[in-house]
User: What shape does this take?
Amino acid sequence: MLTRLLSGDTPRSGLLTALLLIVLISLAFAPFLFPGTKSLETAARICIFIVLVASYDLLLGYAGIVSFAHTMFFGIGAYGTALALSTTGPSYGALVWGTAAGAGVAALFALAIGLFSLRVKAIFFAMVTLAVASAFAVLVSQMSWLTGGEDGLNYKIPRELTPAFKLIKAKVFDVSINGKILAYYLVFFAAVILFLVMLRIVNSPFGRTLKAVRDNAFRAEAIGYRVVWYRTTATVLSAVMAALAGSLLAIWLRYTGPATTLSMEIMIDILLMVVIGGMGTLYGAVLGATLFILAQTYLHYLMGVAAEATSAVPVVSTLVAPERWLLWLGVLFILSVYFFPTGIVGRLRAGRA
Amino acid sequence: MSETAIKPRIEKIPLKEQLAQKLPVLLVPVLAAVGLIAIGNPASWLTLTVAGLAMGMMIFIMASGLTVVFGLMDVINFGHGAFVAVGAFVGFTVLAWLAGWTASPSVFMNLTAVLVAILAAMLVTGLLGLAFERVIVMPVYGEHLKQILVTMGGLIVAQQMIYVVWGPDELHMSRPEALQGSLVIGEAAIEKYRLVAVGIGLALFLGMRHILKNTKIGLLVRAGVENGEMVEALGYRVRRLFLIVFMTGSALAGLGGVMWGLYQETITAHMGSEIMVLVFIVVIIGGLGSVEGCFIGAMLVGLLANYTAFLAPKVALISTIALMVAVLMWRPQGLYPVVKAK
Amino acid sequence: MAENLLTLSGVHTHIGPYHILQGVDLAVPEGGVTVLLGRNGAGKTTTLRTIMGLWTASQGGIRFGDHVITKLSTPEISRRGIALVPEDMGIFTDLTVAENMILAAANGPMDPKRLAWIKELFPPIGNFWNSSAGTLSGGQKQMLSVARAIIEPRRLILIDEPTKGLAPAIIKAMTDALKELKETDTTILLVEQNFAMASSIGDTVAVMDDGRIIHSGRMDELVADVALQEKLMGLSLEAHQ
Ligand SMILES: Nc1ncnc2c1ncn2[C@@H]1O[C@H](COP(=O)(O)OP(=O)(O)OP(=O)(O)O)[C@@H](O)[C@H]1O
Ligand SMILES: [Mg+2]
Assistant: This one.
């Protein structure tokens, strides 16, 4: 049963299973295990990024395509939901059609870009997506009449999902069950379902062909697979998943702006999470996103301590300053591309054998 | 072998093909003419055209190395933008040291200071290119996916190192006295610096063309772009050639960085990744690997960006994307597709 | 029998996941023409590319003169005196004929005497000296490719199917040129499908199939032994005659 739920793609490593279970249980009971607004924010971010990063892995790890437009799709989903909610008010109907519209627009964009530029080389696609995504980000921040520009959009979501709503009077383990917690579980279960769907996709015949295409496009073409079609479909699926992750973010934050959805920084973060977690495994997305966001939230603090401790040594203290954590992550990223192209998950699985 | 076996026969290139060769070149004057009609006022048009050409030249300087590197070894360096930023910061530091020269009323001293800054920037970015090629790019030749990822990682690290060395704030990079202000021609005001930029860019383009057409190393580069294996089979080390080209490309990015910094007058650690968007558009428009295509693409993008910035400021960047899409619909491999043996 | 200039012993070559050469043993005597025959896909091109270092042998050794060249890079192998005329001719179409020749003379300016000889051997080289090499016809490109290989004195020339797709008159011209080249003491390893041409020029012969040498010996013996020819190559030889 469980194996079927995971589409037969089990973690295949004791330690990996244990880590994944820890993540799953921590996220499932986050409101009770780690009470407090900040930790709930972190938990929700992790859920959303697991979906986002996994959807990127679909493209990078399984199809071997590098895209820099993933945040564009993420943003399209977020803005879809945000615009629907802010123009027609906080109804579930608006929430649903906004989300659907976002996913639809993302699919169309992905289809256009895919058909347009996947025929040529991987490098070409990477360059085109980089250009298109930056232009899109600029466009969104300039169309302030629609998108709120740099300030973004603030809007209301259905009342049942806000802290003001109390589901039951009593407290459970000292935590009051308010709308925020409901919103968290909406995000959590949506993330679980989307993740399982992606697991199903990569383990379907389609997913296996995708890998064959990735490993040897030339040969796959010779066997008779329509390489462009497979790649474009992967791009579209991945874009839709990213858009849905964006909608979750829009619902969770009750705010959508360029900095939280479209920025190049987020794109780089996704790239780091996927590679460090392990490309082409999906589980890598879980570990990558979790570790990265925890580090982003808490490592700052540790590095601050280190910087304090080394403040007498001029260069070292700038190098370990909390703002410089991306430096070390960049180094780690390069090293992992060279030495552990399969990331943490690949290491854990190899360790088992 | 007898003469009769193969009669000498001059192959005539059909007129249509000749025209197709020239057509992309014509795009630049056509765009300028359309700009004139759309803008209406000749004085503003002249100002914008010079600005567009200056911007185009700077983008060309930054993009040329990237495109040749790709042509030669099938390597696209997503970290190329880091060289632009590093060049700008090094230039900034040198100009700050030479503050006495830049503030001096002597044009000669001013220009010497800029020259020193440029040379220093090119030296540093050239050496950085050497390190980048050896450490970051070399281990992943032939693997496009890893190449993109690793060079992107290099970009992140390089940008962070700029923060470490120069701090997180954006810096003000002022032009020396001689390069400030404008010339007034009729009703049009043309910034002196832009003319200088056009001059440097044009000189560089002509120099590059000369090298590619008339020197052995240029021939080797062109031959290597088409068929690197054959160049090796003739006894040349393409790897070493590539390293030279890579370093030159990095040094040119550094030059572009100083020029761009003086043009914008503010520099930030991520200026490189912002310009890279334009650089990529230009390289794609021109045809990956083609220097001529890159030059024309840069001019088109520079002009279009300035015209639209005047006519409809909000769509300036979108217009260049639209240009890219239009060009690719017309020629899916860019204006000058590069012949590749394989 | 003359001493061997080039010896391959037990050479294996992998291309990506594919195991193409599976233990090639081949000897090329000094100063003659050795013809390498075999049906399509037998591994002839791969053998030449492995000798040239364009693929690296994963196992086995290649000796050239007194040195082992198995692990040398292509430029080093070239500088030891081996030239390659590849199957696709490897012409730089973006360059002129002259520029192609200038690059081929890797050790400095071209020797005018040699150049004059080459222009005599292949008149189109002189006639189209300043034209773009991309505008040459297939036969002319093939001549340019051979010309590049001999603009500097070489000890061994690897030629991959120089008559592929050429008209009979040009095949004859090419054969004559190669015969003249043979007179200059250059050793040639020639891959050829055209048995008539191969037998008119070859001194020794090796036949490949499935990544191995299945026969080697003197050309005149193979020409005399029709039964052996049929056994080795079946119908594929007849088809080419
Ligand atoms: N780059 C490559 N990738 C994968 N397989 C290859 C590659 N090059 C050659 N092969 C395979 O190696 C085998 C030998 O090829 P090779 O070109 O050496 O044959 P050949 O004898 O020269 O044939 P032909 O007479 O058709 O030129 C063939 O099965 C071919 O499919
Ligand atoms: Mg062959």
In short: Strands of chain B lie at 171-172, 182-185, 188-191, 266-267. The domain at 43-330 of chain B is CATH 1.10.3470 (ABC transporter involved in vitamin B12 uptake, BtuC). The first strand of chain B starts at residue 171 and ends at 172.
